[in-house]
Design goal:
Keywords: DNA damage, DNA repair, Glycosidase, Hydrolase, Iron, Iron-sulfur, Metal-binding. The chain is mainly α. 62% of the residues lie in helices and 0% in strands.
């Protein structure tokens, strides 16, 4: 198959995946406080920071009260570490996270709450690794950036192609595919759809029988072949 034909096939599969996931999300998407319209950039960023390597349901249990207790960067920068630790205890590594979150708040107070659009400068801010920077671009700056965590990686690898590197942040194929998939006018919804789909259907042990994209999923195809053998 020529390169142009291969690209057309890939584009067709991506389009199918986007359409099916958006349909699925409309009916099955999870409802979280931080997905509401009209939240401040502070509220969005804090949600993404707390969600990193943490189940969304865990964060949902304390996020609304956290925002009431610490309503802005100034309140968070002036918070006592013990108080932050009390809130973050459910999410693991709470002492480290408390210090890093306070440092982020102190930096944002210095910046008067303004997040830079320059990617290099954005990632230089404490706690602003690749994932959080992508979330800022997606939610604050309305750019089609993927929220690539282990859950999104699992879905993308199963449906499309497995990555080559252990660290998802540096795998060129996974990153390129993820950007291609969310390059859509509903980039935010596609990101949320994939994360919810990973939590509810494409779990570590997948529920292929209820999967809307199984007919084009490489994992499902391989499972069927192996079962026939």
């Amino acid at each position: 198959m020529s390169r142009s034909k291969m690209e057309n096939v890939a584009d067709e599969k991506v389009g199918f995946f986007q359409a099916k996931l958006l349909e699925w999300y409309k009916l099955n998407g999870r409802k979280f406080y931080w997905r509401k319209k009209g939240l401040s950039s502070y509220q969005y960023v804090i949600a993404e920071v707390l969600l990193q390597r943490t189940r969304a349901e865990t964060v949902a249990n304390f996020y609304p009260q956290f925002i009431i207790e610490f309503p802005n960067w100034n309140a968070l920068a002036n918070a006592e570490l013990q108080r932050l630790e009390d809130y973050l205890r459910p999410v693991g590594l709470y002492r480290q996270r408390s210090v890093r979150l306070k440092n982020l708040a102190i930096e944002m107070v210095k910046r008067k709450g303004e997040l830079p659009k320059d990617r290099k400068e954005l990632e230089s801010i404490p706690f602003m690794g690749q994932y959080i920077a992508n979330a800022v671009e997606l939610i604050i700056f309305k750019e089609p950036s993927p929220l690539v965590d282990v859950n999104m990686a699992r879905v993308v690898e199963r449906v499309f192609e497995p990555r080559k590197l252990a660290d998802i942040r540096y795998d060129p194929q996974l990153q390129a595919l993820s950007y291609l998939i969310v390059n859509h006018k509903k980039a935010k919804e596609i990101n949320w759809a994939i994360l919810d789909f990973a939590a509810l259907v494409c779990k570590p042990t997948p529920l292929c029988s209820i999967c809307p994209v199984s007919i084009k999923c490489n994992l499902f195809k391989n499972l069927k072949v192996n079962n026939l053998d």
